[in-house]
Amino acid sequence: MGIRFVLMVNKQGQTRLAQYYEYLNLEERRALEGEIVRKCLARNEQQCSFVEHRNYKVVYRRYASLFFLVGVDNEEKLSALHQLCNNLDLPIYNKSGEGFNHQLIHPKVEAGLPNELAILEFIHLLVETMDRHFGNVCELDIMFHLEKAHFMLEEMVMNGCIVETSKSNILAPIQLMDKA
Amino acid sequence: MEIKDSALVWHHHDADPDFGSCQSKELLSHLENVLANEPAGVTKGLVAEKVLSMMVNNGKAPDFVMCIGDDRSDEDMFESILSTVSSSSLSALPEIFACTVGQKPSKAKYYLDDTADVVRLLRGLANASNPKPRQTAHFQLDLVELSRSFKTDPIMNPFSSGTRLRDMIRAIRACKTAAEERAVVRKECASIRAAISENDQDYRHRNLAKLMFIHMLGYPTHFGQMECLKLIASPGFPEKRIGYLGLMLLLDERQEVLMLVTNSIKQDLNHTNQYIVGLALCALGNICSAEMARDLAPEVERLLQFRDPNIRKKAALCTIRIIKKVPDLAENFINPAAALLKEKHHGVLLTGVQLCTDMSKVSNEALEYFKKKSIDGLVKVLKDLANSSYTPEYDVSGITDPFLHIRLLKLLRVLGQGDADASDTMNDILAQVATKTESNKNAGNAILYECVATIMSIEDNGGLRVLAINILGRFLSSRDNNIRYVALNMLMKAISLDSQAVQRHRVTILECVKDSDASIRKRALELVYLLVNENNVKSLTKELVDYLEVSDEEFKGDLTAKICSIVEKFSPEKIWYIDQMLKVLSEAGNYVKDDVWHALIVVITNAPNLHGYTVRSLYKAVQTSGEQETLVRVAVWCIGEYGELLVSNTGVLDVEDPMTVTEADAVDVVETAIGRHSSDLTTRAMCLIALLKLSSRFPSCSKRINDIVRHLKGSLVLELQQRAIEFNSIIEKHEKIRSALVERMPVLDEATFSGRKAGSMPAAVSTPQGAPPKIPNGVAKPTSAPLVDLLDLSSDDIPAPGSSGGDFLQDLLGVDVSPASSQGTNHTQKSGTDALLDLLSIGTPPAQSSSSTLDMLSPSQDNKSSVDVLGTLASPSLSAQSSSPVGSSSMMDLLDGFGTSPSLPETNGPTYPAIVAFESSSLKVTFNFSKEPGSPQTTLIEAQFLNKSPNIYSNFVFQAAVPKFLQLHLEPASSNTLPASSNGSITQKLRVSNSQHGKKSLVMRVRINYKVNDKDVLEEGQISNFPRGL
């Protein structure tokens, strides 16, 4: 699925949970969060839940005062770029100036096409899972139980892929922890 | 029973449950802060104390004390009970059960989860204290259950993270400014660092939890990494768990930390506790590097067959990371991965399918294997899944596990791509999914979307494709923006397969371009861009241009770029092209990129029958949209070139409305543009050139134009000032050549321009989808005619080829080097060339021109190269310079008024001051210098000797010696007798050739012999005060 990050942000744009599945340094992270949050929070209810930003496609959903944002690879952009360059018979360069390998991304790039609707469904699953654990989950629950929220996310996503979609399977180890 | 004096109750029964609950917690947290200092008086604590003491006084001492409360005020009660009981004079101390409800920091030793548990507890107690014998059997059991229902002190639980984490979060929340927050974080970080350096064991997990919070806020936390390692190495599960979490969050790309952790992970992968194995796998899957992948692959491979499915699923995802890091390892995993596809557990299936998908991407061997062995199985799994009855655990709005659906469809897509047999096998199930899936919920639509993507990617089956396009059509007409967005997305894929089918939806797609939602607009615009062809370009462009008028400011940039690109690519005729571009320029000229209007100018010059029409349209457009910078530029350029067509109304097309423009009106336009505050340097410079040209075309306005130009002589911008001075000089002093100087530009070469654009594509790769490329730096091909440089003078690094250098110069101002006006001066007179070059602003400092985007007259690089070219051309005939300065008069006059021009001294020929080469009490020698034309190395020196003494010198001989790089030739002296008392002189000519001309100065030793009163005298000296440059 290629999830690159999961963010939870409140109405004021303060980050409440951030999990990245690729390495970004502190400045990049802050800048990215700022830009994305500004973009998403400015949108209204009627507008669609997808925003393209840099190399990410951001899928977001609002629950009361909390925004859940998930960034996925915008592989489409890569493939479009690739096609363009192929047509013109040009090498592709990434931002650091190194050449991309055509073969690596081209023939199978279609498979990586993100399914935005599925990500939206995933966000809902995440919220339902947290709801089941915290009971009407809210910003404060996540703030004061940050590590629990992370544990749940960890049970659901690993290395950018969804691991488990059953709420009871996700919560089982956490409940076990609480009992211990 | 509850009587309250005053109470403030805040209900949120009818509110939105999520929002209400959230707000109430927010309110609670505020109230707790506000009410922290409760007034002294009656508290539950005091009451409890009183009740207890009353019971004791009445002789009924309690067996045990149990108080349960969930409130802040109950905390007093818990505290006072402890103190009362322990201080009272009871013989036997009663057991105390202070119990709070909900897990939170409290003085109570026990807690219950919620009120239901309280009721259960009370019921249990009631049963236990019921004297009926029937119940006694249960008595013990109930007590056991009772004691079990109490949970341990929250403070002892590491994941309640202690009060201090809570305090820190509160403190951070209370911060009103970023500065305050920073201060709190700094303090916390300091204390955590201190704890780390003291190797504090007890609070390690809590400190790490704090660090995670601080990390989330975006502060540096790298110093906590080693703490993670320590926690991971500790034996307990809770410590390990927070340690691994911290590792995944705080890790930066420091390899040494990864190296240190490898061993711990390896141990944990072999741990007997499956949860610990799970933790290690999860961490490995998130952070593993290539080296770790090699080290730990065998462990992961083994775990793929572990008995617990929860481990298998994590091992599967771990494998994905490993094979991505080290693709060579993929073949080891093919069999275990294929085995996962036969699992029943959804989690394992989900991750197994994902693993196979990713494996097929890195290894062709795996791809072939799965194609051969797994497709039937996968089709069956999907079929079972689609037909499965209700399974509560995985149900999402009536569909069983949509995530697994989507994963399976993705894998089928990979396997079916380019493989007709495989595609054939999956046709049926795809058709079933496409037709049977409910489309009224998001989950169903997600599956349909994926299914369409798969149908589009696998080998062609006409029926399925029609089905897929129909689904997209339905999506497109949906009211849900999300659905429309993905439909547009998918149509972009479909267009390459079946553009006819997509064309059918053109109208709907065009509507989407005008949507209020930026994401949808962007998608739709890109789709429209792909939809354009020769047949529909006119109607689509019209729609887009019309929309440009009302679109959002932030969308105009994208929209403009796309329209320009469409128009350029598909334009059926020039007049249409010009019309559309003018509309775009008047609506959104400020968003148009430079190369677009450059291209427009090229097209205009190439359409001679449209010159009049264009300049009149531009004149009209600029009246209404004068604030669009690029429109103004193009208009000014055209008025400068074709101004007379504007006034004379020549070449009127049928479609035009007649209009009368006077010469003064045309000049008005340029004057307004030059005076406008927002105009930038390029525009103003272009205006100046236009004015210069108009000054010759509109004689009636010549004086007014000169006034404007003169006014700009005071401009603070060097560039403008210089041009104004030069142009002013042309207008005032060079009436004869002016008209020749300002002739119309020759037609710009379209092919060369487009060639350059194509050559610039590498720079434009960053803007895919055909966005107009920017003109590149330094990629000009040597073959490109210098004409094109007119439009892009800013940054060519490659010098124009020598042969065309001269042309280039002439063309810059449309100078017609006709035999009548300036033949001879141009290529024989250095001075003349200099004058021309100077006209063209050679003096512009390079920094300035390199910064401006386009600058008609200050092409630093090109001009320099031209100077070189002309300099070499001119040098062989340098001799003309000193001997015939008059010959270049017409051009040289251009320089009048340029007293400070650096080229002035050279044009007047070199002159050097005379020096006193030698002087003693009796003799004075002066040198006069002159240069021989055409050989700058050679200096002619005329030495003059004067006798200062009252005696006559006879046998006067002058000798000189020079270093090796000089050659000296002495001519005979005029006499060998020097009269006394400066009454006469001897002159002698010397010719010195300097082989190091320009590098070394002349130097000379002299010796002078003469006889005074029959007595030989010798004088010697060194002359080193020659002027520079000889």
From TrEMBL, chain A:
* Localization in the cell: Endomembrane system
**Pfam families to which the protein is assigned, alphabetical:** Clat_adaptor_s
Could you name the domain of life of the organism this protein comes from?
Answer: Eukaryota
Chief location category: membrane
Q: Which residues form the AP complex mu/sigma subunit domain?
A: 3-84, 114-179
Q: Which UniProt keywords apply?
A: Membrane, Protein transport, Transport
Q: Which PANTHER family match?
A: ADAPTOR COMPLEXES SMALL SUBUNIT FAMILY
UniProt family annotation: Belongs to the adaptor complexes small subunit family.
**Which protein is depicted?**
AP complex subunit sigma
From TrEMBL, chain B:
Which PANTHER family has this protein been placed in?
ADAPTIN, ALPHA/GAMMA/EPSILON (PTHR22780)
Identify the main location: membrane
Q: Where is the composition biased (Low complexity)?
A: 849-860
Q: Which SMART domains does the record match to this protein?
A: Alpha_adaptinC2
Q: Which UniProt keywords apply?
A: Cytoplasmic vesicle, Golgi apparatus, Membrane, Protein transport, Transport
Protein family per UniProt: Belongs to the adaptor complexes large subunit family.
> Where is coiled-coil annotated?
none
Among Gene3D superfamilies, the record links this protein to: 2.60.40.1230, HAD superfamily/HAD-like, Leucine-rich Repeat Variant
**Protein's UniProt name:** AP-1 complex subunit gamma
Q: Which Pfam families match?
A: Adaptin_N, Alpha_adaptinC2, Trehalose_PPase
Q: Disordered: where is this region?
A: 758-781, 842-867
Q: For the GAE domain, which residue ranges apply?
A: 910-1027
Q: Where in the cell is it found?
A: Cytoplasmic vesicle membrane; Golgi apparatus
